[in-house]
Amino acid sequence: MNLGLGIIKEKLENEECLNAEDAKKILSSDDLIAVGELARKLKYKKSGKKVYFVFNKHINYTNLCVSKCKFCAFYRNGDEPDAYTMEIDDIIEEIEKMPDGIREVHIVGGLHPTKPFSYYVDMVSSIKKHFKNVNVKAFTAVEIDYFSHLEGISYEETLKTLKAAGLDSMPGGGAEVFSYRVRKVLYPNKIPYEKWAEVHRIAHSLSIPTNATLLFGHIETDDEIIDHLFKLRRIQDESPGFLCFIPLSFHPDNTPFLSKIKKVDAVRELKVLALSRLILDNFPHIKAYWVMLSPKVGQIGMHFGADDVDGTIGHERVTHAAGAKSPIGLAKRNIINMILNAGFIPVERDALYNELSVYDEQDI
Ligand code: V47
Question: What confidence score (pLDDT) does residue 330 get?
Fold first, then answer.
């Protein structure tokens, strides 16, 4: 272990917080295994050898979007042959196709040009009515901001209305990188950091747990990644309520602006994962999202600080529109296998990380 990482190791042993300089050393280190070792130690402290997954289904209710982010291959304007919007009955039907035992429905979509706020409220209440044991994890801060403008009400009112309809938790998307420089180039119509943070702080104050993400591997710098992580750490210190952090590696295929960029490699993905575990020491969980990493890099990710792999997913659309080569969904047995073969203990959880079942070799 080189001297820089040695000092970081000592700090972690003394339970001292890392600073931006330490973070920079981690990202630029050429000792990948040592970086992984630091993050894995912290993972073991937090969750031992357990790695969590959830039996879930992703619903992307529309690909119409008025935001038109330049990094996104998923959105459509409305007149393309593959533009779609799901009605509530379609959503219920899609969830009904899942085998029994589903615990979480993860809902995100584009910012639809004409659907009223009542569509989203009805969506949540219908799912709750039909599927009693399902946690409705729905709508990013970007969608909440959009709904509040549609309806002319505050973030708090928007979230209270959705919570009364059955909203249980919120995903972490839409954060991208908080850098104003990157926002100006790639997602000028998307809410800035302050508003993203405000929505999550209010959600936490209403006992709606949320997640957080980082989109990396496009035009961001190391400093911008580090700043993003420290901003999240501060939100969690001041307004706790984040359950999990998910670093998302950018997929360039079919994107309007960035299709020539080379997809980030596994070494970078693993370093960012490890750095996330180390900086976000106040986040209970870090996710190795197999859809973006691939199941194989996801397995290595468990040795780089991740204690969660998301879940079965059903049919992922956002990353696959941008060329992801991973499967569009995984069977529960594949996930259990993936975790066991990486040397960890698969634990099926619900959306709030209550443990439902622990698996071993006999279960596959
Ligand atoms: O916000 C969009 C990203 C996010 C691309 O909370 C892209 O548990 C890569 O947030 N390449 C949506 N990424 C996904 C998301 C998420 C996923 C899994 C779990 C959770 C959770 C949240 O996907 C968007 C954006 O940052 N994204 N386009 C792309 N071409």
Answer: 85
